[in-house]
Each structure stands twice: as C-alpha cells, then as structure tokens.
What we know:
Blueprint: E1 2-9, E2 14-17, E3 20-23, H1 26-36, E4 47-57, H2 64-76, E5 83-87, H3 93-103, E6 111-114, H4 127-140, E7 148-152, E8 155-158, E9 163-164, E10 173-174, E11 182-184, E12 188-189, E13 215-219, H5 226-233, E14 240-245, H6 256-267, E15 271-276, H7 289-296, E16 300-301, H8 307-319, H9 324-331
Parallel strand pairs: 1-4, 1-5, 5-6, 6-7, 13-14, 14-15, 15-16
Antiparallel strand pairs: 2-3, 7-8, 8-11, 9-10, 11-12
Amino acid sequence: MKILIIYTGGTIGMKQTPSGLTPAGDLATDMRALAELGPAFQRHAPELDVLVYDPLIDSADMTPALWIKLAADIESRYDSYDGFVVLHGTDTLAYTSSALSFFVRRWGKPVVVTGAQLPFGFPRSDARSNLISAIEVACTMPAQQAQVCVVFGPRILRGCRVTKVSARAYDAFDSPRFPPLGQIGIEIRYPGARRQVIGKQPTNKAIDVPANDAVAVLQLFPGISDKLFSAVASMPGLRAIVLTAYGAGTGPSRDPAFLDAVRKAVASGIVVLVVSQPLDGVVDFTRYAAGSGLASAGAICGHDLTTEAAVTKLYYLIACGYDAEEIARYARHPLAGEMTV
Ligand code: ASP
C-alpha cells in the first residue's frame, strides 16, 4: 500500500512560539519516523510519502484557492497512490473535507482528512492516534465505499457531512445529520459505509478559481432586516448566499419587505440556498407557513446540507462556470453524497 500524506498545517504539527502556537515543518520528520514503526500499524505498514505545504498554515487562513490546489495535488497523483491523508487544522477542516468531496472528481480511493486538538509530542496529544488511524483507514477502506472522509477520535465520518462540534474535546467532529461511515476501536469497522450512496458529479468541466466574494453566508436572527439582506445581496461579485434559517427552514414570514428583498435578489441572478441552524436541523419548506414564504420568494431548499457543504458546493458550482439557473438546478440535487433528498 502506498499512501500520500499531505501536510497543510494546523495544530497537529504546531510548535509553541512567543506569539502562540504556529505551524512547523518538524512533523514531516516525525511522520517519516512513524513509517519505520511498523508495529504502530495493526496490520498494514504502508509505504508513506509526505508532501509538506509551504507555507504551512493555521486553517483559519484557508481559502477556496487552496481547496482547489489541494484537490489538484490529489488528482494529479491519483494513479500513484492507494490513498491520501490530509493533515489539516481543525478550525476549517469541515470546509476543506466538504470542498474536497466536490473538487476531487475521481472516485475509488480514500481521501482521509484529519488533524488534532493538541500538537504531536505534547503530553496526551491526540495527534499520533489520529494520524495512525487516518493512515489505516486510507489503507483499508473498501474501494466501493472509498470517499472523502474525516477520521477524528473514534469515528469515520463522510467528508461533506461533518461539522466541528467541540473546541476542547478529542471527539471534535460529528455528522449529526448523517450516520458515521465507520468506527475506530480495537478494530476499524465500516458498518455504515455500504448502504450510503454517493451522488454523481455532473461534469468534468475545467475549474476556475472563484473570487472569494462570490459566496456569502447570512444567518437569520430575530430582527434581521430587508436592508441587511439587500446590502449583502448587492455586494459586487456576489453569486450566491447561504441563508442559515431556523429549525425546519423558517424565516420572517410577516415581513413582506424581507421576503421581497429575497425575491429581488433571486430575480437578479443570486442563488439563495437555505440551510438549517440547529446541528441536526433539516429544511422542509412545507412544514411551516413561515418556511413557504422563503420558498415562494425563490430560495432553494438545502434539505440536510451543512453550512460547510452548502458554501463549498456553491464555490464548486461557480468554479465550474455554471450560470445562476444551472447552479440552482445542481444545488437541489446531491453531487457527492452531501445531502439526502
Ligand atoms: N487554529 C488551528 C487550525 O485550525 C486549530 C486546530 O488545528 O485545532 O489550524
């Protein structure tokens, strides 16, 4: 088995400096040493190559351009490896794992994203066990179930379904709207992976790095005004808004000016994709009258999409060069197993 580890940065390899934890390159040496520790791997001692990004970053500095570079680095080496492990900071890991689910358009090999809550070498760090588990998953995930996934603590989760749920616990990620693909215990098991269908990519269209300001996220709150919505919708270069609505996708229904602002934005070619704020929320516009208002204003139901998957899917569709009508059409259907319709 040949595995490529791509080290992008994050706490997993950080060192303490006077200005705080900072990404450092030493992890690459630690990882090469790990490869020599055959017994660290229960069954499969793989051949490991390590690609270290320069600069290594705190994942707070991730951008759509970097997702696209990462996806291209994986695709261009796809035939040379059996699997890929991406080491990443936890803060935006769920965005990157979602983005890779769309931007890596080749199937059949695991792309495992992981990180750690404490740096490698710190007492009680989770870095070593997450790294070893991620490598083992990259070696053992059955080909017909292989997909972009997140390995963190005791679980294997679909990459485009995860969200960061804790800044302190070792069990920092979950996919509350979708069952885990597998469990990491004494053995690694994939009980959930078989029955979980992955969507189909619509295209092999060339990817153009989208402008950062092509997508915005706007969270509903009691008091949100049509003026705020319109100000966001009229930002130059904006193509799509992810609107995080309440429970089942409800929003202000007694505020005609707000609904009118949504209607005007949609008419001007802005895609408005609605997701739910609660961790396990699912948008269903037919459930409450307060949701049907958004639907009749032209907003799109995001079903059980996470905000992370919604944002990255929109950047992906924009990067493919689709117009507003095509983006709206693809936004309604799963492309990479990111939603259940
Ligand atoms: N700030 C760090 C990062 O996201 C946090 C972490 O890795 O846990 O890069």
